[in-house]
Amino acid sequence: MRLIVVTGTNTDVGKTVATAALAARAIAAGERTVVVKPAQTGIATGDPGDAPTVAALTGCDTREYTRLDEPLAPDSAARRAGITIPPVADYAAPILDLLEEYDTVIVEGAGGLLVRLDTDGGTLLDLAVLLDEARPGLVEVVVVCAAALGTLNHAELTVGALRARGIEPAGIVIGSWPVEPGLAETVNREELPRVTGVPLLAALPAGAGSLSPEQFRGAAADWFAAT
């Protein structure tokens, strides 16, 4: 039984593809797997959203709890729409209930760790703490970061925020590793485990999300084994 919470250090760092890769790896290991998206924004833009993307790449089950039109932080999108959305505490129980049906439950956040998922100020960090309190020792937080300059600072800030709330991250994933990495990318890959004290689990190749589902599922386990 595994409960994995996936957060980014920022938006557009490859968090959804990393979530899909974690799901594909679990499925390949024979684990019944579901991916949960507590809050999805930007649905009015025509973007299918993160959960459908994960489902298309992996074939796993997904759940979405809150959907908002504008491509903003969930609390901002809700305030602008004049609607009330559930507090993060309301997401904890249905997520924990999924552990009765699935071997692996993966929760994907929205943007960075402290992006507000509700209009009360609740964040993915708050949700992770609630889940950890309910099932001590079960929650694994995976931090997805960029490869480029600035990522060391973003990763350290995210890891520091988790540790300040009593959660030790399980690992870091570089969400998009360039075909021809430069000096900054190469050094960052070496330095991320040193400066954060968190192991590097994988560096996903750039364009991984554009692979066919068959190619993606076949390669996912190897991405984690390569670090």
UniProtKB/TrEMBL annotation:
<comment type="similarity">
    <text>Belongs to the dethiobiotin synthetase family.</text>
</comment>
<feature type="binding site">
    <location>
        <position position="16"/>
    </location>
    <ligand>
        <name>Mg(2+)</name>
    </ligand>
</feature>
<feature type="binding site">
    <location>
        <begin position="175"/>
        <end position="176"/>
    </location>
    <ligand>
        <name>ATP</name>
    </ligand>
</feature>
<feature type="binding site">
    <location>
        <begin position="108"/>
        <end position="111"/>
    </location>
    <ligand>
        <name>ATP</name>
    </ligand>
</feature>
<keyword id="KW-0479">Metal-binding</keyword>
<feature type="active site">
    <location>
        <position position="37"/>
    </location>
</feature>
<keyword id="KW-0963">Cytoplasm</keyword>
<dbReference type="InterPro" id="IPR004472">
    <property type="entry name" value="DTB_synth_BioD"/>
</dbReference>
<keyword id="KW-0460">Magnesium</keyword>
<protein>
    <recommendedName>
        <fullName>ATP-dependent dethiobiotin synthetase BioD</fullName>
        <ecNumber>6.3.3.3</ecNumber>
    </recommendedName>
</protein>
<keyword id="KW-0547">Nucleotide-binding</keyword>
<feature type="binding site">
    <location>
        <position position="108"/>
    </location>
    <ligand>
        <name>Mg(2+)</name>
    </ligand>
</feature>
<keyword id="KW-0067">ATP-binding</keyword>
<comment type="function">
    <text>Catalyzes a mechanistically unusual reaction, the ATP-dependent insertion of CO2 between the N7 and N8 nitrogen atoms of 7,8-diaminopelargonic acid (DAPA, also called 7,8-diammoniononanoate) to form a ureido ring.</text>
</comment>
<keyword id="KW-0436">Ligase</keyword>
<feature type="binding site">
    <location>
        <begin position="12"/>
        <end position="17"/>
    </location>
    <ligand>
        <name>ATP</name>
    </ligand>
</feature>
<comment type="subunit">
    <text>Homodimer.</text>
</comment>
<keyword id="KW-0093">Biotin biosynthesis</keyword>
<comment type="pathway">
    <text>Cofactor biosynthesis; biotin biosynthesis; biotin from 7,8-diaminononanoate: step 1/2.</text>
</comment>
<feature type="binding site">
    <location>
        <position position="41"/>
    </location>
    <ligand>
        <name>substrate</name>
    </ligand>
</feature>
<feature type="binding site">
    <location>
        <position position="50"/>
    </location>
    <ligand>
        <name>ATP</name>
    </ligand>
</feature>
<feature type="binding site">
    <location>
        <position position="50"/>
    </location>
    <ligand>
        <name>Mg(2+)</name>
    </ligand>
</feature>
<dbReference type="Pfam" id="PF13500">
    <property type="entry name" value="AAA_26"/>
</dbReference>
<dbReference type="InterPro" id="IPR027417">
    <property type="entry name" value="P-loop_NTPase"/>
</dbReference>
